[in-house]
Design a protein that fits this description.
140 residues; single chain; 52% helix; transmembrane; transmembrane helix; mainly alpha; 3 helices; DNA-binding transcriptional regulator of glucitol operon
């Protein structure tokens, strides 16, 4: 529980209380306006407590996530679990490096070679061979 009393969490707790109190206060203000004859305020009188409920929901979800992340029972040995072994460790995000593949252009099906297509393929080959070059630098 001590991890919920760090300076950052104290700010979150205070912000949650201030936002909930503000939303409920605005809801009460809309109720008084609706009682005074403003028909549109009935909708707002319902809307503001919903906002307060959303703030509480987000705060509670963050508290649960923080408590679960630091729970020693949740970081048990993955080899002891019944499921298949994960491909990455528990704390490592699944980020992969790009794979460079050499692609060989296929030959035309009918055997005919179009001059315009050959020029375009030459241009693309030059761009691939010169990754830092701009299209305007093409010598052809």
């Amino acid at each position: 529980m001590n991890r919920l009393w760090t300076p950052a969490w104290i700010v979150r707790h205070v912000a949650m209380v201030v936002l909930v109190a503000g939303c409920l206060g605005m809801g009460w203000w809309q109720v008084t306006r609706a009682a005074g004859g403003n028909a549109i305020s009935f909708g707002y009188a319902i809307e503001w407590p919903v906002f307060a409920g959303f703030v509480i929901f987000v705060w509670w979800r963050e508290v649960r996530q923080t408590l679960r992340a630091a729970d020693p029972a949740s970081s048990a040995d993955p080899a002891a679990s019944a499921g298949p072994a994960p491909s990455v460790t528990a704390g490592t995000p699944a980020v992969r490096r790009p794979v460079r593949v050499v692609r060989v252009p296929s030959a035309p099906a009918d055997g005919a070679d179009d001059a315009e297509l050959a020029a375009y393929n030459s241009y693309l080959s030059w761009l691939n061979a010169n990754p830092g070059a701009r299209p305007g630098d093409y010598p052809g």
